[in-house]
Design goal:
By secondary structure, the chain is α+β, with helices and mostly antiparallel strands. The protein is built from 3 helices and 5 strands. The chain has a domain of 127 residues.
């Protein structure tokens, strides 16, 4: 090894050794410089939390028991106000303004929900589920609100639209089992 590179290799080995053994140590390997926490912006954290909330609450299709003959077939509950406002936030976002520079609010919100379709598909076999019927329910949700925008630069002013409205269409689908669901499958 040449004379000039030997001290550099020694210094590099010392730096790597010190970086990997700093802080509290436990038994086992150390992650070194990659053990330090990485800050996550609040905006990105809120996006992940909202994504999880929507997946957990609204993006799953439940599997219900079989339909009884002669009974009226009605869809599950209409969409909740939370579901309507989250769907509206995806279409026209309000969150994320900059205080004293640009802000937007929705005041005096009123939601009207109308069922526009409720029908059931013929039975078919779904993988991992078995024979089932898909039940569709389509809702038209009209949101009436007052749209207030505060603009702070270059000239501070406020814009109000007292008759703002938005129409959101929400589909609720779920499955109904078909046949005798209590009978166990017996291999031949």
């Amino acid at each position: 090894m040449p004379r000039r590179t030997a001290p550099l290799v020694l210094v590099a080995a010392i730096v790597v050794g010190l970086a990997s053994s700093t802080g509290c140590t436990t038994l086992g390997p150390s992650l070194g410089i990659w053990a330090f926490p990485i800050p996550v912006p609040a905006y990105k954290q809120k996006l992940k939390e909202d994504e999880f909330w929507n997946h957990e609450r609204y993006e799953r299709a439940p599997i219900l028991g079989p339909l009884t003959s002669g009974a009226e077939v009605v869809a599950l509950d209409p969409p909740s106000d939370d579901e309507v406002m989250r769907a509206m936030e995806r279409v026209e976002p309000v969150q994320g303004g900059i205080p004293f520079l640009w802000e937007r609010n929705r005041n005096n919100v009123r939601i009207v929900k109308e069922k526009i379709a409720d029908y059931i598909d013929p039975p078919r076999v779904y993988p991992l589920i078995g024979p089932a019927q898909q039940h569709h329910a389509h809702y038209k949700c009209t949101v009436y609100y007052e749209d207030v925008r505060h603009i702070g630069w270059p000239v501070p002013h406020t814009l109000k639209n007292e008759d703002a409205r938005e129409v959101i269409y929400i589909d609720h689908n779920h499955l109904h089992m078909v046949g005798n669901v209590d009978q166990a499958c017996v291999p031949l």
